Amino acid sequence: MRPRDVLLATGHESRGGPVSRDLLGPGTGAYVAGRDLPAAVRGRDRAVVVPMTLGRDPGLIVSAAQTLTWAARDRTPGDLLLAEPLGSVRHLVGWIKAAIARVLRSGPPPQAVLLVAPAAGPEEDAELFKVARLVWQNLPVRWVEVALTGGRPDAPDGLDRCHRLGATDVLLVPASFEAAPVLDGARTAGPLLGPAALRALIRDRVATAERRWRLDADDGLTGHAAAHHHHHHDHDSLERAAFHVG
CB 107: neighbour CB atoms within 10 A? Predict the structure, then answer.
């Protein structure tokens, strides 16, 4: 049987952009959930959809589930699978801490860290402030602040706040798939997840979805409650990935 196509559903954490395109070669593509994903699903005989969220976009999971549930009505059971999301908030906190740790290994600790991510809705943006608090726990910096690309405070405003708090050495860290901006008066950390790490995580989600269907006949499409469950429940394989992929 021909391998499934892998469809990556994207949302505000990548601004719907092609950040995850071409990661796994032919048969893999990135599509904006609710816009490009339905047509992409219609054009595939067999596919597995991976919600490309780092934990701050539960709506992406719901949208992908709705698209696949609609498309699956005219398909043989198991033709379309919904994989676990790429990450959870717990993973995001771990990946941000790992990015900061890489900087700490190469130089002195910054006085402040500024987390930067695209603006979304009020709840998603508020979640980033929660992430900042969790990142700050046990971190050898005085402040962890938040900036929203396309929102308020934006990165220059966030950097200015850090300076007004008294920080002369500020590290900008991405809290999304987008790279953090390079600004005068601050250091900038690299991406949270490089291409190799993303490929490994996507392969893990796809393999888990295939195994779940093979063993339990579970395609991941059991309605919105399941989609929310996928967002809030951390499986053992996800936990291992959070601390071993960087």
Answer: 10
